[in-house]
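User: Structure with beta-D-glucopyranose, tokens only please.
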Amino acid sequence: MWQLVESEFEPERNLNQETLLALGNGYIGMRGTFEEGAGSGMRSVEGTYLNGFYESDPIRYGEKFQGYPDVGQTMLNVANAKVVRLYVDGELMRWENGRFLSHARTFDMRHGLLRRELRWQSSSGKEVAVESERLVLHAHKHLALIRYTVTPLNFSGNIVLYSGIDGQAKNLSSDDDPRLGAGFDEDVLQFRDRSITAETAILHQQTKTTGFHVVCGIHNKMEGERPFTAQPLVDDEYRLGHRFAIDAAQGEAVTLVKTIAYATSRDIDEAELMAVVQGELAKGTAVGYQALKTEQADFMADFWYHADVVIKGDDQLQLGLRFNMFHLLQSVGRDGHTNIAAKGLTGQGYEGHTFWDTEIYILPFFLYTNPAISRKLLEYRYHILDKARQRARQMAHPVGALFPWRTIGGEECSAYYLAGTAQYHINADVAFAIKRYYDATQDAEFMQQFGAEILFETARLWLNVGHYNSDQFHIDAVTGPDEYTALVNNNAYTNLMAAENLRFAAHIADWLQQEYPHTYQTLAEKIALTPEETSAWAQAAAQMFVPYDEERQLLAQDDSFLQKAVWDFANTPADHYPLLLHYHPLVLYRYQVCKQADAVLAEFLLHDQFDLAQKKRDYDYYEPLTTHDSSLSACIFGIMAAEVGYPDKAYRYFIDTAIADLDNKKGNTKDGIHAANMAGAWLSIAFGFGGMRVGDGLIFNPVIPAHWESYSFRVQYQGRLIEVTVTQEASTYKLLDGDPLEVQIAGAGKWVM
Ligand code: BGC
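Assistant:
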């Protein structure tokens, strides 16, 4: 179960398939479109995206108030370098011409590539077999490859291959779906320069508003014995490439190897870009296709060694899990300056923005399977900390930092503040991720260099935004994770997570002062931190108000939630979900109706602050009110279902999570993968069925769905690699690497392995 195989092409599913079959390496992302382009009338989004590369556009408000962000950021669709066209007898091979006798694609997750095999018959009856392979190289951030092989099956004669770049890329928009966002015209990328030689073609473009530069280069090389002529071609400012006329012979394959490179002024000086791309192309061609393909397979083998989850007894879910993990790897920025968008690098949904999805959902997957990547995600937050400080000032906080609800470059881009800026919990989410990271890695160097400063600045903000009422610390006018409830006082999730932020910041301040007094001193001077502040953090944490309904013994989502009328679920037609596409937000805000896990999420994250009976009561209360209209919801309810004793529900939620994109369960996979949900599938295995929790060390409390034979997963923790295997009879914990470690197993006490 390592391959997603498309044995028959269904044009009406094309948009979804383009998302599912997308390739990426955390920097370059390419949708799974055809080299020759889509057939006419076929719905398609030709998309190539570069992590961190965006265009800005003014946000137009009907009524604009103080502090609203002025400009948005949109991940830009850049020049398409996948273009390869095949002509037989002058006829272009594409969907509406001639006849496809067979067509299959294989998305090979074990080796990290996409293969396409087809047979096509031209109108004049000439048949060719085409095999293409596409790789976006994990070990070489700037590089991708296409190997395109054509074999004439029933003729000898001339065939023509054109391999080029198409720089006329366009972004999509939608007036009806707020989740899609801004569109741009085809000329958003403007011509700056180009170079073309016998084998390479390079195009240099620049965005209109941000002024970012992007250079896309290709190197085309024909392999095989057959004679050919090559011709460099420049069509216009957008299109250039090479045309090969080949004297082909029946049964003899001819192969084009195309090396592709992208670089941008986001991380390379603009004057160097053309040379860098040239250098990358030279490097790629010198190493050669086969060696790079082997290197890619080795990279993937290492990834799977640490991350793979094996489910015996359910092939579809096995495939779903690997598919999700593979896409997460493909989407995640790994250079400390880029992050992971809600839709990865696979589509234009949410404009390529990064949200709290990273820290609460995606980061733990990487933390426990590939901690180095999780550190890079946190470094990203450090690199945008100054912008978060500025944002805090715009929001009238004289101290501290406020991370943007959604962004690419670090500035707040959310135009709808009720379900945007008001989600101050983003600050606590970042702090929580730092705490988790530190616990799992004990990376003191990270804490000194990056972590402590973020913790201190976020803690400061809570103290400024909240206030004491009687003896308790209150936080008013925020929105919690549930976006069907907005601008409330004392959202339980926010208050609990803020308390955690404050407590941990105070703890780290003490620790730093004792262990690394010089570092503490320097940092305290840099941000003018006083001892009074750190003790005020500890106090606010201790006195944090948490709304609770004594009568019903429920954790209240916020001060007013439980007093509202319950949404009329019985009279809501099934086709009115997701509710956000059918009701004005204000209508939703008036009722007890949740888009996603909120109080229940707090009880998952802060598991040792609630007893089982409390968790069960809250689960029973909030579950019927939750629509799961957000894809961030099902996995959390599944994990908590496993904990509170509903294994069947846990399993159902797991299915919804594990194959959400493969089955297009949300109906918008065309706009990109649901990255947080994908990570939720891994969380469902480790934290859900595996019952893993991190408290004073690792804790496991496994359950197994009735019809699974077994499942196993691996966890990296404090320098160890552990494998957990659960069967119907037993659970086994194996230390694969590192020093002995004590783990706690529910019902069996503490064990050293
Ligand atoms: C969810 C948010 C999430 C965003 C991006 C929204 O639908 O409600 O919690 O951050 O999608 O995935």
